[in-house]
Write a structure and sequence with these properties.
The complex is a heterodimer of chains A (278) and B (308).
Chain A lengths: L1 H40 L18 H9 L2 H32 L4 H12 L7 H10 L6 H5 L6 H12 L3 H9 L4 H9 L4 H17 L2 H6 L8 H11 L5 H20 L1 H10 L5
Helix pairs in contact in A: 1-13, 2-13, 3-7, 3-10, 7-10, 10-14, 12-13
Chain B lengths: L2 H8 L2 H4 L5 H27 L2 E2 L7 E2 L3 H9 L1 H15 L1 H16 L5 H9 L6 H11 L6 H8 L16 H26 L3 H9 L4 H12 L1 H17 L2 H6 L11 H11 L3 H25 L11
Antiparallel strand pairs in B: 1-2
Helix pairs in contact in B: 3-16, 5-13, 6-10, 7-10, 8-10, 10-13, 11-12, 13-16, 15-16
The chains are: A mainly alpha (278), B mainly alpha (308).
Chain lengths: 278, 308
């Protein structure tokens, strides 16, 4: 009898949990629904009160925006900048992490330098970073947009931790076999550090894909704009009641959301590891 | 054995003894990035902030000229500073909601993974898209928020959220909460799941009720996770550029101006790089103070233990 009571009490607790979680989930999802609905119907100022369900959904606004903005060009810029950031992140951070994991004279100084750089938020650096990029002649270039994002301190330490966990005897054996240090990184350490690589790829992707302030400073003309810049620029030329704006939003949203759904586990692990950014 | 020889033994033989330059070659590219985009800019900011700087002529020494303006005459700075503080002060609400969600999702529950994904999915969304979505929801004529408020009779006539200097900042904060709450929830959930179940069972068998278990076991052990959330909140309040820029551009007037949007305006709209540098230094000093304070509140070993 006592067991039954405890069981049903737990059952009630579960129902109560759902009772709280369902409306909360609805609140989180409604903005997405509203965006999608608007993009399919293009409701505007003349429709009041707003309809809850899409009335005569169609893809007109998607076609409209396709001809109104150079979407493929924006997408290409975004993909290129993100690819540069992701690849250089993995390469630079793995090399630096390897050096730190193996140890060398002067290491403490370097670790101190990295830890103190980590304390400097990127926002604090925008003005001189812009001037430096101008001096380097990298304004209005993909490289200029990707460069500040091309290495992440959190991820250097992530690689260091992962490499340090690899048995030293394995590394020594490879050396005795005459493998160069570069090959040891590539063929032994990196394949054994898949989790660190995945985390770094996810972090570098999200930060570069979503970054807005820095490309806003570096990209000078429309040909160089990334997706978020293109969206912000489009917002400034159209009315916020035009369906095309919301169709554009959905198109911008899709690639990132697809990546998220494909790699959800790595995503969540990565974003909590890099919660404070590096 | 002395510490030095022990250290030499730990340092791998082939790696650095025969080629002492190799580690430096491996570190050089990453270090170059951090020096060029973190350390050098910080120092350049300090230099710029005591100079008169212009695109067209050599800089001259200005002493504390900009800091005088900053502390004595800049009303916009005061406004944006207050707004940044309000933005930051609102984060405990989001963290508390996220904590409640995490507690609900900590126990086995049907569709737990689905709930988790739903709460988290707004976080990786591009902030510019978040801004456009909420612009639309807060639209003064046909926005969903106004529609709900009107039809439930909470307000008598539509609110002009983004044009009203009492409401604009609040609207931006709501959008930012919607975006970040999933991250808080995941951080707190990770923390909750690392608390050993045996601890709670032991307390329960000693007769501790649910509230006592929460108060004396869960809460103290959740301190590092809560601290991480607070750090995220501090960093976000200083980085809140995208949302404000797209939703209100700091307006109306400067009613929703943040430190970072103000610095951007001063530098890139007014072209006053020198004054923007002084503002940045002020901003950075305040940021460090907050970080130090948060660290002390957390018991002095911020992020310790996992090398972050």
């Amino acid at each position: 009898m006592a067991g039954d009571a405890a069981l049903s009490r737990r059952g009630i607790a579960k129902w109560l949990a759902h009772l709280a979680l369902l409306p909360a989930s609805a609140l989180m999802l409604i903005p997405f629904y509203w965006l999608l609905k608007t993009s399919l119907t293009g409701e505007n100022l003349f429709v009041y009160p707003p309809r809850v369900w899409p009335d005569d959904p169609n893809l007109f606004h998607f076609v409209d925006v396709w001809y109104a903005v150079p979407f493929i060009r924006y997408l290409w810029n975004s993909v290129l900048v993100s690819a540069l950031a992701v690849v250089s992140n993995v390469v630079l951070n793995a090399m630096a992490g390897y050096a730190l994991a193996q140890g060398f004279r002067g290491q403490r100084g370097i670790v101190l330098l990295l830890l103190s750089s980590m304390m400097i938020p990127f926002q604090v650096t925008v003005v001189p970073a812009y001037l430096i990029t101008r001096e380097l002649g990298l304004l209005n270039s993909h490289l200029g947009m990707a460069l500040p994002l091309s290495s992440t301190i959190v991820c250097i330490f992530l690689f260091k931790a992962s490499f340090s966990a690899i048995p030293r005897s394995l590394t020594e054996a490879a050396r005795i076999d005459g493998m160069s240090e570069w090959r040891i990184i590539r063929e032994i350490h990196l394949p054994l550090s898949k989790a660190a690589v995945a985390t770094n790829v996810v972090l570098a992707f999200v930060w570069s894909w979503n970054s807005f302030l820095w490309p806003l400073l570096v990209a000078r003309d429309q040909q160089m704009q990334t997706l978020p810049l293109g969206l912000a620029a489009f917002l400034s030329v159209v009315e916020d009641t035009s369906g095309a704006l919301y169709a554009f939003c959905v198109m911008v949203l899709m690639p990132g959301l697809l990546v998220f759904l494909m790699a959800q586990r790595h995503f969540i692990a990565g974003l909590t590891a890099g919660a404070t950014k590096g | 054995m002395t510490a030095a020889t022990r250290k030499m033994q730990r340092v791998s033989t082939a790696f650095s003894r025969y080629r002492p330059w190799l580690p430096w070659v491996m570190l050089a590219p990453a270090l170059a990035i951090f020096i060029a985009y973190r350390l050098a800019p910080l120092f350049w900011n300090m230099v710029l902030s005591v100079q008169h700087w212009s695109m067209f002529q050599a800089p001259t020494f200005a002493g504390l000229y900009h800091y005088r303006e900053l502390f004595l005459y800049d009303d916009t700075l005061r406004q944006s500073f207050e707004n940044t503080l309000i933005y930051l002060a609102s984060s405990p609400i989001a963290i508390a909601i996220a904590f409640a969600l995490a507690l609900l999702l900590d126990r086995p529950l049907r569709a737990r993974g689905l709930y988790r994904a739903i709460f988290f999915i707004s976080y990786p969304v591009m902030t510019v898209v978040v801004a456009v979505i909420w612009l639309w929801l807060f639209h003064e004529k046909v926005g969903l928020v106004n529609h709900v408020l009107l039809s439930t009779g909470i307000v008598g006539k539509p609110l002009h959220f983004l044009q009203d200097d009492q409401l604009a900042l609040g609207a931006v904060i709501v959008a930012s909460m919607w975006q970040v709450i999933g991250l808080y929830m995941i951080i707190l959930l990770t923390g909750l799941q690392s608390i050993p179940a045996t601890l709670k069972q032991a307390a329960a068998s000693d007769g501790a009720g649910p509230w006592q278990r929460f108060r004396h076991i869960t809460l103290p052990l959740m301190r590092p996770s809560i601290f991480l959330c607070v750090v995220v909140a501090i960093v976000n309040s200083f980085a809140a550029f995208d949302l404000v820029y797209v939703m209100t551009d700091g307006g109306p007037g400067h009613a929703s101006e943040m430190m970072i949007t103000y610095i951007y305006d001063v530098a890139f709209s007014l072209g006053r790089f020198d004054y923007a540098a002084a503002l940045t230094i002020f901003n950075f000093a305040f940021f460090m103070m907050l970080a130090w304070f948060a660290n002390r509140m957390a018991g002095g070993d911020a992020g310790g233990g996992d090398g972050r």
